[in-house]
Specification:
The protein has 612 residues and is an alpha/beta fold. It has three domains: 268 residues, Rossmann fold; 233 residues, 3-Layer(aba) Sandwich (Rossmann fold); 61 residues. It has 23 helices and 17 strands. Strands 3-4-5-2-1-6-7-8-9 form a nine-stranded mixed beta sheet, with helices on both faces. The two termini are 20 Å apart.
Length: 612
């Protein structure tokens, strides 16, 4: 990471003059994971610095994704347009236009399937020239290889046309975009190459299977381990991309050490991930938004839990964790152990608060559990009858009190409700109430018996008993506006919660705690996550700004769980007034991670590659 002096110097860096910037990523117009957030959120700040005409993104073309994200161009007179036309003449299915996001950047998208007839030849050349061995019949690798071949051909044409600038920078993100790099170097194209690895795939596999991954990092044989985990072709692509780049970068210091040992090259610099932070004009709007969205989460919680038993929603806190389903890497195992301990601590201390913790991840499922949907529908029926009664009583009350003669006497409201509505409400309540415990998981999983989250909850008897202070809702699908249980997107859901929990064991960066911060929400992460490592080294008094960091490296699992439980126990006891003040501090601290600030690291990389 840059020293304080280097940060000051970096703040003065301007983007190189007479330079055109291409960014190539598998997640351009193709939402898959965290890199999509990196690229998309960075666009407005890049456009502001480089201008619309000096910047272009390159990604794969998949019709379903493109329908929502891509707007085709009509003018092909630019050098990029001419290169696209040349490729189309050769039979490539290539599309030129704009990405429908803030900033509306120019994009070129390649359909991998349009060159599948050349796969044999492409794979042969990769082996012959660079000793990258691509197996047969691996659909993802086939698409990646076909995409990379087309990108390389695109840059062949770009260097032939007069683009108007003497310098062309191509910034490749992650192994899925990196295949063109060795070919560009072999053909000596006049392209300055930056490659960023956001995580090594081999590192992810090793961390999942070795609890002492970081301690053993220096002793792994990358080739032996890649063969063992059947990811050698990807490891070869990662290594070729890293070694072929003029400037090699990664997203955190901790991932830089991983690159040194697994890719055989130490990154030239670190490019931490940011967000496009959108702030409210008035501070009170942060709290207003939280309250409004919390009420929507209340609606779900009432439908899910109150069918079995009620608790005081005014004394309920919402915790959550989210991310891809990697039980150990994402720290789900640690979170569950800490929640079980928190449940015990709250019961012993007789804390008059309920904690509902949501696990938001992705697991194979058949459908939303019919009982969960049925309960949701039933409580909505109860609400509709209450609305009918409210309207009826309101009209009758208004009529009676304005018609009374003499002294005013408050009327008996129960006499203003028709027997029909009384009976209807009673039947709805009776059909909704049950003696069964609330469901832990909202969906019918395809492999319920072997799900690690569920098995822990069963062993710990953390199954939403009425006496439990900590309740769990396991939602094995990402939250979207089309979701019938929440009817909101993920970012909205986050703003309605109180605390994010992300004590990852392996996380090259980790957007989830940063997204919490931007929403005015404190979170807990670990120092072996890239974000946590950055915070420890760059943000003084981070605990006071809503960034709690748990130390995991070299420590006993149960000691770490106790620390995490104690952190949550302290948070549970914070007053509402202090939580509101905390929310403002978090939102203020998030400005450090706006691309207008962290973009300077990219500027430094581009300046260095042009000079190199």
């Amino acid at each position: 990471m840059l020293t304080e002096k280097e940060v000051m110097e970096t703040a003065e860096i301007k983007v190189p003059e007479n330079t055109f910037l291409f960014e190539i990523a598998w997640e351009v117009c193709n939402q898959v994971g965290g890199i999509y957030t990196v690229i998309r959120s960075k666009v407005p700040s890049v456009i502001k610095k480089w201008g619309h005409d000096n910047y272009c993104l390159v990604g794969p073309y998949f019709a379903e994704q493109a329908a929502a994200h891509f707007d085709p161009a009509t003018d092909f007179s630019t050098p990029i347009g001419k290169a696209v036309l040349k490729l189309q003449e050769r039979g490539f299915d290539v599309h030129y236009g704009q990405w429908i996001v803030s900033g509306r950047p120019n994009v070129v998208l390649f359909n991998p399937y349009s060159v599948f007839d050349k796969l044999g030849e492409i794979k042969h050349d990769l082996w012959k020239d660079f000793h990258i061995s691509i197996p047969a019949s691996d659909e993802l690798l086939d698409k990646v290889v076909a995409f990379g071949y087309q990108v390389k051909e695109f840059f062949n044409y770009i260097t032939q046309f007069e683009i108007g600038h003497p310098n062309i920078i191509a910034h490749f993100h992650e192994w899925m975009a990196g295949i063109p790099i060795p070919g560009i170097r072999k053909d000596r194209l006049n392209i300055k190459i930056v490659f960023t690895t956001h995580a090594t795939l081999l590192g992810r596999y090793l961390a999942m299977n070795d609890p002492n991954f970081y301690e053993h990092l220096a002793f792994y044989n990358w080739e032996v381990e890649a063969t063992k985990f059947n990811v050698k072709p990807i490891a070869e692509i990662e290594r070729a991309s890293a070694h072929g780049a003029h400037i090699f970068t990664t997203v955190s210091d901790i991932t830089g050490k991983e690159c040194t040992h697994l890719l055989g090259r130490t990154p030239d610099m670190v490019l931490p991930n940011g967000l496009n932070i959108v702030r409210y004009e008035a501070l009170h709007q942060i709290q207003n938004q939280h309250v409004k969205i919390k009420e929507q989460i209340h609606d779900f919680v009432m439908g899910h839990f109150f069918q079995s038993y009620p608790f005081d929603l005014d004394k309920t806190l919402y915790f959550f964790t989210s991310g891809r389903y990697e039980f150990h890497n994402k720290g789900y195992d640690l979170t569950l152990e800490a929640l079980a301990r928190l449940n015990y601590k709250m019961q012993v201390a007789n804390i008059d608060t309920t904690v509902v913790t949501f696990f938001i991840t992705k697991q194979p499922f058949y459908t939303i559990n019919p009982d969960v949907l049925h309960s949701k529908a039933q409580i909505e029926d109860v609400w509709r009858v209450c609305e009918e009664i409210k309207e009826q009583v309101g009209k009758r009350l208004y009529t009676q009190i304005t018609s009374d003669e003499g002294q005013y006497v408050f009327p008996d409201l129960s006499k203003m409700v028709d027997d029909y509505l009384r009976l209807k409400l009673r039947r709805n309540i009776q059909s909704w109430k049950t003696n069964r415990l609330p469901k832990v998981v909202t969906h019918t999983l395809k492999d319920d018996a072997n799900d690690e989250i569920l098995n822990f909850l069963r062993r710990a008897n953390l199954v939403n008993n009425q006496h439990d202070k900590v309740k769990v809702v396991y939602h094995p699908d990402f939250i979207t506006t089309s979701n019938p249980l929440f009817r909101m997107d993920y970012n909205t859901f986050v703003r309605g919660c109180h605390l994010g929990i992300f004590p990852s064991m392996y996380e090259p960066w980790g957007y989830t705690p940063l997204e919490c911060l931007a929403s005015g929400l404190p979170s807990i992460t670990s120092e072996v996550a890239g974000f946590g490592d950055y915070v420890v080294n760059n943000i003084p008094d981070h605990d006071e700004k809503g960034m709690y960091i748990i130390n995991r490296k070299g420590r006993n699992f149960f000691d770490i769980a106790e620390d995490l439980a104690n952190n949550m126990f302290k948070f549970v006891q914070i007053s509402r007034r202090d939580r509101i003040a905390f929310r403002y501090k978090c939102e203020e601290a998030s400005l450090h991670f706006d691309w207008s600030n962290l973009g300077k690291y990219y500027d430094k990389a581009y300046k260095a590659v042009v000079e190199k």
